[in-house]
Amino acid sequence: MTPTVGDLLSTMVRRCPVTFKPFRIFVVGVGFFSLCFLMTYIGGRFSAKRPGDSPFTVRAEVLGGQESRGVLRKISDTLEVIMKRMDALSKLGNATDNHRLEELSSALDRIQPVGLVERIQAIAQNMSDMAVRVEQILQRSIATNRAKDGAFGQCEIPKDPRYPDCTSKMDWMRARWTSDPCYAFYGVDGSDCSFLIYLSEVEWFCPPLVWRNQTTTPTLKPLARKQAVFQSDIGALLEQVGTGKESLSFMKRRIRRLAAQWASAARRLDEKLRNRWRDKKKILVHIGFLTEESGDVFSPKVLKGGPLGEMVQWADIVTALHVLGHNVKISVSLKELHGFLGVPPGRGSCPLTGALPFDLIYTDYHGLQQMKQHMGLSLRKHKCHIRVIDTFGTEPAYNHEEYATLHGYRTNWGYWNLHGQQYMTMFPHTPDNSFMGFVAEELNETERLYIQRNKVNNMAVVYGKDASMWKVSKDKEKFLAVLNHYMEIHGTVYYETQRPPEVPAFVKNHGLLPQQELQQLLRKAKVFIGFGFPYEGPAPLEAIANGCIFLQPKFNPARSSLNNEFFRGKPTSRKVSSQHPYAEQYIGKPHVITIDFNNSAEFDAAIHDIMKINVEPFLPYEYTCEGMLERVHAYIQNQDFCSPEVPFPPVNSSEALLERFFIREPNSRILSWASSIISFPSWPPLTALRLLTSLQGQSCVEACQSKGLTCEPAFYRFINIKEAFKALGFQCEVVESEMNHLFPAFSTEHGECSLQVDPLLFSCAGSSAKHQRLCPCRDHRDGQVALCKECL
């Protein structure tokens, strides 16, 4: 049996002659050193196990126990050597140096405390007892660990076909677990046990471990529903928006300026809904493009003529959500995003644990990328709660990652595999997406009378705050010269000290104006003229709302991602026919005149017509505060991309029954839903469905618009059946199913009826010269194209 440290020290003291005092002092030093070393080491081992430590440190402590026994053994060996040397030195008593040693002993006797040897013996005995106790603890630790190893199966990788990636993920964790501190945050310590626990409880690549059942988190009961109540006080909202950026200051000024209009709109909508129950939602608004991490190129340009359209829309979105009575949190930094979501510390490799603390998250493409980097696998789990504010729209062919990669639709912005209607646009140009919009200020009767009395018939304001938009080309020089012949031209181009050289001398430039002064200028002007850029901004609607006629250029050929640098890389193939297609298609004459600016005769005639006509201020209902509240309310209460859809067609439905789902409208080739035969849960309700076929080379967007309808992608799953072809009169030689964003469609060349395989590819956009597409259309409310007549 190996002697303990205490045994060795006691033996050394007994062997040491009383008269040989120098070695007694030496023993004191050795004993004191050993005691300090042992206490420090044991204390360190026990203090390392704190209450907050990871549950995965058991294995490390067992290894520590082996290490501590090794250290004790080394101390024992060292003391044994010392004892042997002391036995040899004790024989020097009869040597010639004995006299010198006696003198040294006499000197040491004078400084030796009383009872020193007894104290050393007591210390040695205590150390011997402590060593025995440590040994007992270590033995128990070994036994406990062996018992657990037996229970855990030595943390072997489970063989479960339901978790095919478990083995590869274990290999990855072994090689890379130190690559992100978040793994250690969740208790990973480099052992296989910790890897398995993490992969089964934090992530979901390995099956649940039987011996971890006691740590299973209990299923949380859903929180009680709360009713949303309209609110007009914007104080809490302004605090949420924050400070420190000029972009945020701009948004707060806009919120304050429109507060009264939002409040009156809320009252009108409340009366319209007749106190209907509205669920109160917890909503996070993360404005990614304003974060420092995304570069935030917008804030520094707010007061220098930079684009404001995005900030206008975000200010209106947060106001609408707040006024509708929801619990809104606003984030404009990664730090705030981490805090709101509960992101673990690290580099974003680990998912969130627990339920998402929000019902909805509104963000943009920058914010979506940031959430991907910092939420890990949780983004896939929670992405159904996300709404992406997307100015120009994202079509399904670009959104579907696999399809976009295989068929050349992949861009820097698409491929997120979201439901198409989770993208929300500034204008209703892409029915595959949801139309979010913004608001323009409404005029009261006093302001309308002011405009009527003070319009200057020969005054034009040019759309363009940045000097680069005024760079003179030959074509631009021509139409400016014609316009100057009939009208006084005003500009609002930003400059610091000197007049921008790009602005012609005959233009009266006011510089960058505050919103109120710009409105006063527009209320006097007769025409608001666009140069062709920027595309689809809010300014033309504001000009029309203030009584201006918007004169804009027609693009021939239409501009798109295929032929225009600005649109290249955007996840849409939409063809833009003018500077502002919404104004051209949804408002039109006399408020909007779209012409070829390269045709000087046509331009000259348009100016003559403008000077002859008078127009009233006009604002589409969907761009009023009430219109936006109505639309956003309908989305929040009805759009659900998280709950599984009820399968369609119903199980065991006969072919004869399916054919009766569609009935032909009188004197028309359009089919509607036979709601008297079957009722099926859907929003929009199926009573709004109108089924028709496109022409060859025509998209469903165009086919529905040609009938005064709107394409509704939510209805695709109800018409993606072979019986729909038969109801429309097609004779299917072959019925096939395929991943193709044009399907369901009929091939006139081969008589093939093609069904869609992947619901993410249901798309109103897209056309083919070889196919007639099946198009699900719907009606819409007056002035509100986003909602069907029964959608509210």
Plain-language structure description:
By secondary structure, the chain is of the alpha/beta class. Among the domains are: 155-202, no CATH class; 234-435, no CATH class; 445-618, Rossmann fold; 655-778, no CATH class. Strands 14, 15, 16, 17, 18, 19, 20 and 21 form an 8-stranded mixed beta sheet that branches. Strands 7, 8, 9, 10, 11, 12 and 13 form a 7-stranded mixed beta sheet that branches. A 6-stranded parallel beta sheet has the order 2-1-3-4-5-6, sandwiched between helices. Helix 21 links the parallel strand 10 and strand 11. Helix 2 packs antiparallel against helix 3.
pLDDT below 50 for ≥5 consecutive residues: which ranges? 1-72, 88-114, 138-153
Mean pLDDT: 84
Count of runs of 4 or more consecutive helical residues:
28
- Alpha-carbon Rg, integer: 39 Å
Share of β-strand residues: 5-15%
Please provide the count of β strands.
Answer: 21
Largest sheet: 8 strands, mixed
Proportion of residues in helical segments: 40-55%
* Class of secondary structure makeup: alpha/beta
Shape: globular
Cα distance, first to last residue?
88 Å
Protein name: alpha-1,6-mannosyl-glycoprotein 6-beta-N-acetylglucosaminyltransferase
Membrane topology: Single-pass type II membrane protein
Family: Belongs to the glycosyltransferase 18 family.
Organism: Oryzias latipes (Japanese rice fish)
